[in-house]
Amino acid sequence: MSIALENEYATYKIVDGILYVTYRKDVILDLPAAVYTVKDRLSLHEGLFLPVLCDIRQIKEINKAARVYLAIEGSTLINAVAFIVESPVSEMLSKFYLRTSKPPIPTESFSTVEQALNFLKQYK
Predict the structure, then answer these.
(1) pLDDT given for residue 32 in this prediction
(2) Beta sheet of 10-15, edge-to-edge order
(3) Which positions fall inside the DUF7793 domain (predicted)?
(4) What would the pLDDT profile of 2-21 be if each residue is shown by its tens digit?
(5) 113 lies in which domain range?
(6) What is the pTM of this model?
(7) CATH number for the domain that contains residue 55
(8) Which candidate, 19, 36, 52, 85, has a CA 20 to 30 Å from the CA of 77?
């Protein structure tokens, strides 16, 4: 069974106990956008802790306020995060986020969906 939701920033779907978040092309995440995406994500979970596969390959920019919010409030009901990175920009964004925001849950970056899913399986 698959449950899905989308907004102007991302698409969200739960498949086999993993939440897939795919950010849209050229998204710029500031604090209001981060708050909005977390609100939508939480409405999809319905109180369940889930591992998250987060595809950030198409994000254009994320500011400091959004990074801080996502690291703390954005970790609500998440037990692990796997970022999918590809371009130098998305890889740089994920490394910078991990180094500066220090999320309170296991969080790693991967270049393939398969690697990310292998990491997340231990948190299902």
Answers:
(1) 97
(2) 2-6, 10-15, 18-23, 50-55, 78-84, 107-110
(3) 12-124
(4) 678 999 999 999 999 999 99
(5) 2-121
(6) 0.87
(7) 3.30.750.24
(8) 85
